[in-house]
């Protein structure tokens, strides 16, 4: 959803204020379901593999595909840049609540259940 929110700003579907508020809600949910950046990235990676799996209703084929844990080149590059390299980005970020969360913009009051 974070990516979609940023694309909403780029396409003028959302204001930056709206996008930041939506992303703050995403942040709170991530803190609830994951304990650290490594878990978060593992969840993202699994989802990415699922969406890249063959479009087939064959459950056994899906299990085999996911068990092989095959990354495409961009997935390998992403893992290296974010976690495995000496100057990896994610390990430098703290996994904690923000000091301040903005109020819901008026334009998104109908979405306040986020």
TrEMBL record:
InterPro entries assigned to the protein according to its UniProt record, in alphabetical order: DUF1266
Protein name from the UniProt record: Protein
Residue ranges of every copy of the DUF1266 domain listed in the record: 1-95
Lineage of source species: Bacteria, Pseudomonadati, Pseudomonadota, Gammaproteobacteria, Enterobacterales
